[in-house]
Amino acid sequence: MKLGIHAYAWCSRWSNETLGLIDKVKDFGMDFIEIPLLDLDVFDAEEIRGRLEETGLGAVTSTVLLGDTDITSDDEDVRKKGVDYLKDCVKATSDIGSNSFSGVIYSQHVKQARNRPSEQDWRYSAGCLREVARYAKDLGVNIGLEPVNRYETYLVNTCEQAFKLKDMIGEDNVKIHLDTYHMNIEEKSFYDATKMAGPDLIHYHLCENDRGVPGTGLVDWDDIFKALGEMDYRGNAALESFVDITETMNTWVWRQLAPSGDALLRDGSGFIRKMMKKYGLQ
Fold first, then answer.
1. pLDDT, position 244
2. Do residues 238 and 205 touch, judged by C-beta distance below 8 A?
3. Positions marked active-site
4. C-alpha–C-alpha distance, residues 151 and 70, integer Å
């Protein structure tokens, strides 16, 4: 299993001023960094790729859709803007030498929905993502659907629902991205949901139930790593926490979730590596 960390553990916005995080993550002995794509206007693919190549660190990317890029919108222009944005994210991913892009890419993050999603909502999302997936396939990029909790989306809360959307899209480069923070709310079993993802699992966010340091809370890590070990999972898994409230998306960081980004990485990765060793993933 490849172990990494999300850049938001240290910063609330990615830019060339945060390029040094690539060196920091490499120095901590991690395999990759997860880079957010919410600010493509300051995303310098050439500089990022150069730094990644210098350090030998891998990278994945992720994002969320906002109101003006909601591909479940009834407004065709908004859906088109969402498709264009997701294609730009795929291109940015490819430009830095990565083949993995994922996140809440199927509907607006924290959409103020008043009803359960309609079949039209599902069709809008699947149709738009089919176009994005075909574009991504030409660039050698896989896209991951990340189920998140009911307070952050009305569409895909569970692994089972992610597969529903994946099947509707019908493209083989559409994969599953699980997150233990959200699974703690929405799934009945960490083990069952992980095994359900199976060979389609492309990325895993390793978060404690409060988004603090893994191993200090309520998440059933043995359940998770038992499943990953049985699957002989060799894909990407990243620690994810947030240091602050961001300008671009809701993070709800009203208190300090870890002493620091460095402490989250040091203590969290130490715990995760012990679990990896315990279940034969090193």
1. 62
2. yes
3. 146, 240
4. 16
Query: Could you give the CA distance from residue 115 to residue 169 in angstroms, rounded to a whole number?
Result: 23
For the chain, which domains are there?
2-278 (3.20.20.150)
What backbone torsions phi and psi does residue 221 show, to the nearest 5 degrees?
-65, -30
What is the token pair recorded at 138?
């030409």
User: 51-76: per-residue pLDDT in tens?
Assistant: 999 999 999 999 999 999 999 999 99
The two structure tokens encoding residue 194: 């992980």
What stretches in the chain show pLDDT beneath 50?
none
**Which pLDDT value is given to residue 249?**
63
CA 144 – CA 103 distance, rounded (Å): 6
**How high is the pLDDT of residue 56?**
98
Look-up: residue for tokens 């859906």?
79
**Residue 240 CB partners (closer than 8 Å, separation 6+):** 5, 6, 8, 9, 34, 179, 181, 205, 206, 207, 211
Q: Which helix H or strand E contains 3, and what residues bound it?
A: strand 2-6
- Report whether 186 contacts 146 (CB < 8 A): no
**What whole-number distance in Å separates Cα of residue 77 and Cα of residue 68?**
9
Burial class (CB in 10 A: 0-12, 13-18, 19+), 188: exposed
| Amino acid making up residue 144 | G
Under DSSP, the state recorded for 192 is: H
Distance CA 39, CA 14 (A): 7
Give the SS3 label for residue 238. strand
